[in-house]
Amino acid sequence: MSCSLSTHVLDTAAGRPAAGVMVELLRDGDTVISAETDADGRARLAEDLAPGTYRLVFHPPSPFFTRVELQVELAAGHYHVPLLVSPFGCASYRGS
């Protein structure tokens, strides 16, 4: 029983994907993987994770939101966690 995780960062102020955003995946305080989003703002973080609690840390291109951290509980299956960010707000949701 394993899970996988991907993300997508969108710069809503610019109206385009946010390329080059550093994203870290942590478990129990240890870095599992770190990656940068590609030209489409996407990053595939892990393919074979053990289920459990993880922290997803984004370093977005916003002058106000310089670090966005989400704690997620992963079970078996694939998870996609997008981040929408601008200088005025940020939001996330469980994607498909």
Structure description:
The chain has 96 residues and is mainly beta. The chain has a single domain, classed as Sandwich (Immunoglobulin-like). 0% of the residues lie in helices and 64% in strands. Strands 1, 2, 5, 8 and 9 form a 5-stranded mixed β-sheet that branches. Strands 4-3-6-7 form a 4-stranded antiparallel β-sheet, with no helix packed on it. A hairpin with a 2-residue loop joins strand 8 (77-86) and strand 9. It starts with a strand and ends with a strand.
Order of helices and strands: EEEEEEEEE
Average pLDDT works out at 95
CATH class: Mainly Beta
Query: What is Rg?
Result: 13 Å
Structural class: mainly beta
Number of helices: 0
- How many domains? The number is 1
Strand composition percent: over 45%
Kindly report the CATH topology: Immunoglobulin-like
Question: What attributes does this structure have?
Answer:
Immunoglobulin-like; globular; 96 residues; mainly beta; 9 strands; 0% helix; four-stranded antiparallel sheet; 64% strand
What's this, in brief?
The protein is built from no helices and 9 strands.
